[in-house]
Amino acid sequence: MYLNSELLLCLVCVIFPSAISVSHVPVLLWSTESSMWNSAQAGNNGHITSKHELQTLLRSATTSTPMNVIMFLQDTLSIDDFTYYSTVSGSENPLHNVQGILDSSPYSLVLPAVDWKTADNLPDYLRTQEDWNVISVDNYNTSLKLDKSKPNLILVTLQPIPRSNEKDATEAFSKNDEQIGRLNKELMERGGSFTAIYTGRRPSKVFKTFDQAPTLGRQLLSTDTTAPYPPLNVTNENGTTCILIYAKTFSLKSNSTKTFDLTNATFISQTAQTNSSVCSASNTTLSLLYMSPGNGLSSLEIRFYMTNKFYTGSARDWFKLEQVMIIPNQEMEKNATFRTTYASAPAEYSYHCQQVGTSSLHAEIFVPNNEAAKYWEIFLYEFQIQGFHIKNNLFSYASDCSSFFTPAIWMGLVSSIILLWILSYGLFMIMQLTTNDRFDDPKGKPLSVPQTE
Fold first, then answer.
1. Does the N-terminal or the C-terminal CB of the chain have fewer CB atoms within 10 Å?
2. Are residues 159 and 247 in the same domain?
3. Closest residue by Cα to residue 172 from 162, 184, 181, 182
């Protein structure tokens, strides 16, 4: 049975939007065996696949006959990605290989909504189902070395998707699509049966569930427990939390070409090393060390320097994010240093800013402080940090970077002033209206005005 994957994906997005919660990820499966799944299992439109249902589907792929299983795992994936990125690039569909494979495979199956925790645990679940020869593929050019004596489980970690930039995201999807197409073609040429799985560890957008009414205003992490993932915390020698940091997007760009999406490594998988962080009552340094971040770097370290000082003008202590430093390959002489423009809050508070980075359009700007910093770009979305006075492992009340008179407030004030001026002018003109001192009497002699006057 063949499935028109593109039509199915579009119908699922348009007809069943309420069934696709953004707390779910899609799971795409295809196999060389046409009898892998029965036809009833393909009717998943509007259905949220449970953990038991997904494992039952995969059990038939791992236990029925000796075959290989290849799993393509991306950091974030949403069912909307297949429709959005197939049109945003015009004729150059960055996902044409995946959609072509689904259409041409003897059998394919699209599960539009699977709980992201179930998908994230799929590699561990598959390892327990068979005595596999496990092959991990992290490099784009890696060739598969299969074991012919037993089934192979091939785990392919795809390139992260930089969601902060549409162009970079499209390029990343295109490279991932090429890798999926290349490895699928390689397995087809080698012969034998195999089943392929394509999914993501997290949805590309994570919001609250449907039954919760939307709330107005910004929700602080100290009280909002529905965040996509918890903040990263750093503990001191006593085991108490001394640094908290959170961001929905954390990305760097070098020389305007090399992109480093550090969101997953920092907050989700938390593979960033924080051993070099320093905590004290007056100076705190958050060190985030990433090993093998890609783009030719063996390591990448980002340091956030924070101070806690007393200011006589306000008669209180203030916490300030002083500067940010990027250290590639642990070479201090090549560090890129940025100073902040404001980034401060009362010492008992945390600091929050919706958009932070090197762009002049951001509310908080990181200003290059040396020559090396001019070649780096930083972007953090929904950024929140605290380096002092942390209680109960939660952010304190957040001091926001936005000023009191935001652009929206200024627009409202200017519009109101213009409307009041128009109203006042109209009232003034009405008050200046007067009546004639003489009127024509239809029964009397008509008024005449001599032309000479």
1. C
2. no
3. 162
Give per-residue burial for 406-429: e unless 16+ CB within 10 Å, then b: eeeeeeeeeeeeeeeeeeeeeeee
Tokens of 446: 């008509």
What's the CA gap between 410 and 416, in Å, rounded? Answer: 10
CA distance 108 to 324: 48
Mean pLDDT of all residues in 124-148: 80
Q: Is pLDDT at 357 greater than 60 in this prediction?
A: yes
Q: Indicate if 159 and 307 belong to the same structural domain.
A: no
Residues 266 and 383 in one domain: yes
Q: Which of 185, 184, 188 is nearest to 196 (CA)?
A: 184
45: nearest Cα among 119, 118, 105, 113: 113
- Whole-model pTM? 0.48
Q: How many CB atoms lie within 10 A of CB 316?
A: 11
- pLDDT band per the 50, 70, 90 thresholds, residue 205: low
Q: Which of 73, 53, 15 is nearest to 264 (CA)?
A: 73
Residue 139, amino acid: N
User: Between 166-190 and 96-104, two packed helices, what is the crossing angle to 10 degrees?
Assistant: 40
Give the chain's domain count.
2
Of the candidate ranges 149-153, 213-217, 227-231, 295-299, the one whose mean pLDDT is the lowest: 213-217
